[in-house]
Design a protein that fits this description.
Length: 495
């Protein structure tokens, strides 16, 4: 036993500088030897192996950064795929999730990891949903390839993020770091959209627009819809709406004036990005998000001012023609037009779907709804009808039973968040930040009726992390209360 403890101590005490030095020596040596024999490119690839091993060892010693890498890559991977078409974005995310799990398993061999933190109401709900989706493989209308391709975005990521987030981000400062990272990435996304607007699209974006068919939905009669480094304008717009809600509310609860102004600036930039996207459904995010925030904020002045602002915005877009000459305002205003042609097409499609699956309570199987199903069943009836909505897609692929279960889990997350904010959390800042993520989740839920935002990267994983932060908030609250108690004791001691 003592020898084992000595081994564990030796592993934990290895200096990263020593490992980096060895990796550098091995890398240079491998580059020289392999280049002489097989060429420079082969030598370059082979020389990277020691650095990969070094990075792996470094992340095992500092697992927080391993999971942070997943958050970073998740935000940019779909933009990178546009420039490297053969790069499988989903597989990269799968690999990073598996790497995070591997880091925990290796670290648990010589240090306590804290697996018990993963056990909470969210992880149980995510597991139930995953189990239901796994059983969908036996759906007689499903295909194995369609099921395997779709289950990741529908259920696997939700479960993995729900389990891993409490293990890696168990301190309040971890939550705040992710908010800061997210804010920086939001600014980069808006900046990229501005480059598209004022300097035009680059070569790869033009290929996506003019050769892959993107122009049919992004260069339209009402103007150009910008998409930044997201998959499309719909994804970009809803993500910016989410950032707008979260950071505008978060700005209220930070103490430093500069920090408040920064987060408010991020929220305003995100609002402009949302307008640049031309995504009408994205408007649901701020309207629904701010509405639920007003209901749970418990601050009379904020409730009054917020309600007045929401009502003014609704009246401006619904009942006036002010700013109609501006393309962005005109597109936003069309979101409130009940006679809109595209809305009526969607409603008619839903009637056709309802008629076809009324006797299929478990749906048509994962992957078998909408245009993507043409890859697995090109002649199937449902593959000819676009779903145009996350919830319609869930309804089509998992049936009315799956839809009820899925909605039940989402409303359970919201209910728990509201309960914690109203009755459990004591720290004011934490309560405000949890209000912000609750508002963001609810806004995206409402927006998901108009597009499939919940299943897309990066927004889907960000929403799952936000849900995990809600369930982690009691732990953060205890941490903050204990810290305050320690400060009080120190103050009494020094008096």
């Amino acid at each position: 036993m003592k020898e084992m403890e000595d081994i564990k101590g030796s592993i934990a005490s290895i200096s990263p500088r020593i490992i980096l030095g060895l990796a550098l020596c091995l890398g240079v040596g491998a580059l020289a030897m392999v280049s002489l024999r097989y060429g420079f490119l082969a030598g370059l690839v082979f020389s990277a192996v020691p650095f990969v091993l070094y990075l792996t060892l470094y992340l095992i010693k500092r697992p927080y950064w391993a999971y942070t890498c997943l958050f970073v890559v998740n935000y940019f991977i779909m933009g990178i795929v546009r420039y490297v078409p053969k790069l499988p974005g989903g597989i990269v995310i799968d690999a990073l999730i598996m790497f995070s799990i591997m880091v925990l398993l290796i670290r648990s061999c010589y240090r306590r990891v804290g697996w018990e933190r993963a056990w909470n109401g969210l992880s149980v709900a995510a597991f139930i949903w995953l189990l239901y989706c796994v059983l969908e493989v036996f759906n007689p209308m499903a295909t194995p390839l369609g099921w395997a391709t779709s289950i990741r975005g529908v259920a696997v990521y939700f479960f993995c993020i729900s389990v891993l987030t409490p293990i890696f981000f168990y301190r309040f400062k971890d939550f705040k770091r992710i908010l800061v990272l997210w804010s920086v990435f939001t600014l980069l996304a808006v900046l990229k959209a501005l480059v598209q607007k004022y300097h035009g699209f680059d070569t790869f974006e033009k290929i996506w627009l003019y050769e892959s068919g993107g122009m049919t939905t992004h260069i339209i009669y009402s103007g150009i819809r910008y998409f930044s480094f997201y998959t499309d304008a719909g994804n970009f717009g809803s993500a910016m709406g989410l950032a707008m809600v979260v950071f505008s509310i978060a700005a209220i609860y930070f103490s430093g004036k500069k920090t408040r102004l920064y987060f408010l600036g991020v929220a305003l930039a995100a609002a402009y990005g949302m307008m640049l996207s031309g995504t009408r459904g994205a408007l649901a995010v701020p309207f629904a998000g701010y509405l639920i925030y007003l209901l749970i904020s418990r601050q009379k002045r904020i409730i009054f001012l917020g309600a007045a602002a929401l009502l003014s915005g609704f009246v401006f877009l619904k009942y006036t023609d002010i700013g109609q000459s501006n393309a962005m305002i005109r597109r936003m205003r069309s979101a409130f037009d009940t006679e809109d042609a595209s809305l009526n097409v969607r409603l008619n499609n839903q009637k056709r779907i309802a008629e076809y699956i009324k006797d299929k309570p478990f749906g048509s199987g994962l992957g078998m709804g909408g245009g993507k199903a043409k890859a697995y069943a090109p002649t199937a009836y449902l593959s000819q009808i676009p779903t145009d909505s996350w919830f319609v897609m869930i309804w089509v692929e998992t049936g009315i039973i799956g839809l009820v279960l899925h909605l039940g889990i989402l409303f359970y997350i919201l209910f728990m968040g509201c309960y914690l904010v109203l009755f459990r959390l004591k720290d004011k800042q934490l309560r405000g930040l949890i209000c912000a993520v609750i508002a963001g989740i609810f806004g995206v839920m409402v927006s998901a009726y108009g597009n499939e935002i919940l299943g897309q990267l990066p927004t889907g994983i960000i929403i799952y992390m936000c849900a995990a932060f809600i369930f982690l908030s009691p732990r953060y609250d205890r941490e903050l209360l204990e810290r305050c108690a320690e400060k009080d004791e120190d103050y009494e001691h020094h008096r």
